[in-house]
Amino acid sequence: MLAGLYSKFGPAKDVLEITDIAIQEPAKGQVRVKLMTSGVNPSDYKMRLGSRPLTHAFQIPGSDGAGTVDAVGEGVTNFNIGQRVWVFNAAYHRPLGTSAQYTVVEDWMVQPLPDQLNDAQGACLGIPVMTAYQCLFADGPIKGQTIYVVGGAGVVANYAIQLAKWGGAKVITSVSSDDKAQVAKLAGADEIIHYRTQDVVKEILQLTNNRGVDRVIEVDFGANLNTDAQILRPGGICVMYAVVKQPELPLPVMTLMVKNITYKFTMVYSISEIERHNVLTGISRWLKETTPIFNIAARFDLENIVQAHELVESGKKIGHVILNIPH
Question: CA 1 from chain center: how many Å?
Fold first, then answer.
């Protein structure tokens, strides 16, 4: 099978290559998926640059993808050959990611793809949507809450807006440009703050009558630590799912203590089995009850995986980058 892979860390153009490798047979409890699309996420380029050690001779990047079930291992009874599915976690401590014609994954990493979604949309459902759902609902229902989503045009943040509105919350978000404001508005944001020209703390306190927000969905914990401490209501929760740069954290301890603030850290790859069940069940309901917006910035053929990685790494895109897998 054709696969995009690397065997050492470095820039995309130096280490990524398209090569032909053997198709693996699924073992007990595993599913082989014939992939049509693969989602390229920031974690893919971070892994390629060495954020985690290589655990095998090579690494096929890509945790998310969509396609059809091609074969099943012993004991797998909940999938049929030819069934359309989406895949997540394929590259987490595993060599067979989704930037290839086939992947072999554990059966719990596979989910049925609803008929109304195409393969590109299916490749969007893994890390971004699961992360957004976990950040929002890990502590229970959010109906009636006011939630601040940082950077509302970002991929995870945009789904957080959509999911929060579905969950009955009021959403305030921040953006850096008019184009991004439009993306956040289409997702359903109630209030949009231009953080480069407006005072985020002042605006949010005015919008909440000085009460503060119930929950912050945070993409850059280190940069926004003091802002979040000021805008959270007493007993509020800040959930961080990413860091732009590894921060030094001089915590505003007294502010946090006085307000009984909770800070949480989320990595969707390693959530518990119960949490994963709740996330996947919730996403299934969301897909049935709404018409989600999938912002796809660019699509590349597998042979152009270098350009796909470079675009994601540049940060100069609004939405997903998807690989088309040839057969």
Answer: 27
- Tokens in use for 36? 């049509």
Query: pLDDT > 70: what percent of the chain?
Result: 98
Q: Can you read off the two tokens belonging to residue 131?
A: 């992360």
d(CA 20, CA 303): 12
Does pTM surpass 0.85?
Answer: yes
CA-based nearest residue to 219, from 279, 274, 174: 174
Q: How far apart are CA 256 and CA 234, in angstroms?
A: 9
User: Residue 78's CB: how many other CB atoms inside 10 A?
Assistant: 11
**Structural domains of the chain, with CATH:** 2-124+294-324 (3.90.180.10), 129-269 (3.90.180.10)
Q: Is 175 exposed, middle or buried (0-12, 13-18, 19+ CB in 10 A)?
A: buried
Distinct helix (H) and strand (E) counts, the chain: 11, 15
pLDDT of residue 248: 67
User: Distance between CA 327 and CA 9 in Å, rounded?
Assistant: 28
Cβ atoms of 248 and 221 within 8 Å: the answer is no
Structure tokens that stand for 325 in this block: 């897998």
pLDDT in tens, 272-296: 999 999 999 999 999 999 999 999 9
